[in-house]
Design a protein that fits this description.
The protein is of the alpha/beta class. It is built from six helices and five strands, in the order βαβαβαβαααβ. The N and C termini lie far apart (38 Å).
C-alpha cells in the first residue's frame, strides 16, 4: 500500500504515518513544519513519492479528519465547528462521486485526543473561564464514558482499518473515535 499523510510532523498525522508504515505501507509525509523531514527520515527506506491518486489503479481510499465538534457545536467555535461539519458532508459527496472510480472516502471525528492541539485548546478554555490548565484534563475526562483521553494511536488504528481491505465496503461514513463522548 502507498499512503500520503498530511500534518505528519506530530499528533494524529505522526501516529498515522507510523502505524501505516509499521503495517507495511510506503508513506509520503506532508507538513508545514520542517520537523517532518526528521519523521520521514525515521520511516525510511519505505518512504513513497507523492503521486496523484488515479482512477482504475486498484482500490484506493481517502480518510478525512473531521471532529466531534463538526457534529455538536461549542460556544465561540463557529469557524472550527462549521469547517469540520463541512468536511463531514464533503466526505459524503466525494464518496458518491468517487465510488465509480473505486475510491472510498471516509472521515474520522476524533473526540479529545492527547496532542499539542488538544492541550493548547484546553489552555484557551482555562484562560477564558478563569480556571487553571491543571484542572482541565480531569474535567474533560469526566465527560468521556470510557473515562480516558484518546491517544493518537486510537485514531491511527481507525485510519488503518478504514484504509484496509477489511473496510472495502465502507464509504461515505464519519466514524466517531471519542470514547463514547457523543452519547452523553
Ligand atoms: N487532538 C484532538 O483532540 C482532535 C480532535 C478532533 C479533531 N482533531 C483534528 O485532527 C487533526 C490533527 O490534529 P492534531 O491534534 O494532530 O494537531 P497537532 O497540532 O498536534 O498537529 C497538526 C500538524 O499539522 C500540521 N499542519 C497544520 N496546518 C498545516 C498546513 N496547512 N499544511 C501542512 N501541515 C499543516 C502542523 O504543523 C502539525 O504538525 C486536525 O485536523 C484537528 O482539527 C484533533
Amino acid at each position: 500500500m502507498k499512503a500520503l499523510v498530511t500534518g505528519a510532523a506530530r499528533g494524529l498525522g505522526l501516529a498515522t504515518a507510523r502505524r501505516l508504515a509499521s503495517d507495511g505501507a510506503r508513506v509520503a509525509l506532508l507538513d508545514r513544519d520542517p520537523l517532518v523531514e526528521e519523521v520521514a527520515a525515521a520511516l525510511d527506506p519505505r518512504a513513497a513519492a507523492v503521486e496523484p491518486m488515479r482512477a482504475g489503479e486498484g482500490p484506493a481510499s481517502i480518510v478525512n479528519i473531521s471532529s466531534v465538534l463538526g457534529v455538536r457545536g461549542e460556544p465561540n467555535g463557529a469557524p472550527y465547528c462549521v469547517s469540520k461539519a463541512g468536511l463531514r458532508m464533503l466526505t459524503e459527496v466525494l464518496a458518491l462521486e468517487l465510488a465509480p472510480a473505486g475510491i472510498r472516502v471516509n472521515a474520522i471525528a476524533p473526540g479529545a485526543i492527547e496532542t499539542d492541539m488538544h492541550f493548547d485548546h484546553l489552555r484557551e478554555i482555562a484562560a477564558a473561564d478563569g480556571t487553571t490548565f491543571d484542572e482541565e484534563p480531569a474535567r474533560v475526562r469526566a465527560g468521556i464514558p470510557i473515562g480516558r483521553h484518546g491517544t493518537p494511536d486510537d485514531v491511527a488504528a481507525t485510519v488503518a482499518w478504514l484504509t484496509s481491505a477489511d473496510a472495502g465496503y465502507v464509504t461515505g461514513q464519519t466514524i466517531l473515535v471519542d470514547g463514547g463522548g457523543m452519547d452523553r
